[in-house]
Write a structure and sequence with these properties.
The chain has helices spanning 12-23, 78-99, 136-149, 172-181, 200-212, 228-239, 250-257, 262-265, 273-277, 287-295, and strands at 3-7, 27-32, 42-46, 51-52, 62-65, 107-113, 125-126, 157-162, 164-166, 194-199, 217-221, 224-227, 269-270. By secondary structure, the chain is an alpha/beta fold. The protein has one domain (3-295): NAD(P)-binding Rossmann-like Domain (Rossmann fold). The strands form 3 sheets. It has an 8-stranded mixed β-sheet with strand order 4-3-2-1-5-6-8-11, sandwiched between helices. Helix 4 crosses helix 6 and helix 6 packs across helix 10. The protein is globular and about 60 Å long. The chain binds NADP nicotinamide-adenine-dinucleotide phosphate. NADP nicotinamide-adenine-dinucleotide phosphate binds next to helix 1, helix 2, strand 6 and strand 9.
């Protein structure tokens, strides 16, 4: 059984991941910018000042980084873009600063993003060895993973490039579902933009899979690729609603969201071949079923 410290473990993925690992007998601690409370397994840090509760890393065998300011939460101003980088790259650097001398650490696992290849070729299904794109999301991912690679001096490093997470408690699905519930749902842009997706339950199992099999390197966590129109209609069907509004034109989305509009108007398809070849079996392979499950 491992002692696992999850930085950013208070969020959407971290809550489910920590519950799963606790159920499987591991000791789980969360590293948070909130106050320390060892009784609830929470340990304070401030990655901006490199402060960390001195006891957080004691006996830790597995360190996981799920930190990151929400990519789609706010418009991409200069200040916000810095926060998007720092909350991933600087947090990783801070973890390395504190953990490099750890006598017990034996595995570092980092969240990463699957939308990191640019948007030049929407017919292609990208694999983990394809080069990064040159847009903002790709650049953030490249720096985030490079920071994670510092840990390879010490232990195996796993970088899990996460697709759009299908979950009911947060992330993209409740955001898309909100206007649909109110009867104002619309397909955004052309509707053909690719959306790689994974159910939260399978995503948690991917993290566990890399841990128990000691897998290092980069893995796409992706159950399949759909498109924006299919995803929107699947959410409407799960909610018993109809999409009756016309498509929201791309220029309107650009006016409303600015550069952030790329998040809804562009997409990439990614392969899960490497993960499947390692023996991983998805439990939620069908999009409609996955959506119904989280919106029930
Ligand atoms: N959800 C998805 O669809 C998806 C898809 C691809 C990649 N990812 C990536 O996977 C990671 C986890 O995703 P999630 O959905 O669980 O995210 P989340 O719910 O937003 O949680 C992220 C955690 O990061 C910490 N955090 C936020 N802003 C921070 C900052 N400025 N500095 C340091 N820590 C900060 C917070 O912990 P405290 O407040 O406790 O410190 C928060 O609980 C993120 O890096 C995200 O980009 C997610």
């Amino acid at each position: 059984m491992e002692t696992i410290l999850i930085a950013g473990g208070t969020g959407l993925i971290g809550k489910q991941l920590s519950a799963y690992w606790q159920q499987h007998g591991h000791t789980v601690r969360l590293l948070t910018r909130q106050a320390s409370n060892p009784e609830t397994g929470r340990y304070h840090w401030n990655p901006q000042t490199s402060e960390m509760d001195a006891t957080a890393l004691e006996g830790v065998t597995v360190l996981v980084n799920l930190c990151g300011a929400g990519i789609a939460d706010k418009r991409w101003t200069k200040t916000r873009i810095k926060e998007l980088f720092d909350s991933r790259v600087e947090t990783t650097a801070c973890l390395w600063q504190h953990a490099q001398a750890s006598p017990t650490l034996k595995h570092y696992i980092s969240a990463s993003g699957a939308v990191c290849y640019g948007f030049e070729d929407d017919t292609k299904t990208y694999v983990e060895t394809d080069p990064f794109g040159s847009d903002l999301l790709s650049e953030i991912t490249r720096e985030w993973e490079a920071a994670a690679d510092r840990f390879s001096e010490k232990c195996p490093v796993t970088k899990i490039r996460i697709s759009v997470v299908i979950a009911g408690e947060g992330g993209a699905i409740p955001t898309i579902a909100k206007p649909i519930r109110m009867g104002f749902g619309a397909i955004l842009g052309s509707g053909t933009q690719a959306v790689p997706w994974i159910h939260i339950h399978d995503l948690v199992r991917v993290f566990d899979w890399t841990l128990i099999n000691n897998l290092s390197g980069v893995y796409h966590a992706n159950a399949g690729n759909t498109d924006n129109a299919t995803l929107t209609r699947a959410i409407a069907t799960a909610l018993g609603k109809k999409i009756w509004l016309p498509k929201a034109p791309s220029f309107v989305m650009k006016l409303v969201l600015g550069s952030l509009s790329v998040m809804v108007l562009k997409g990439v398809k990614v392969s899960n071949g490497k993960l499947v070849s390692s023996g991983f079996l998805f439990e939620e392979k069908e999009l409609e079923g996955a959506i119904k499950d989280v919106l029930k």
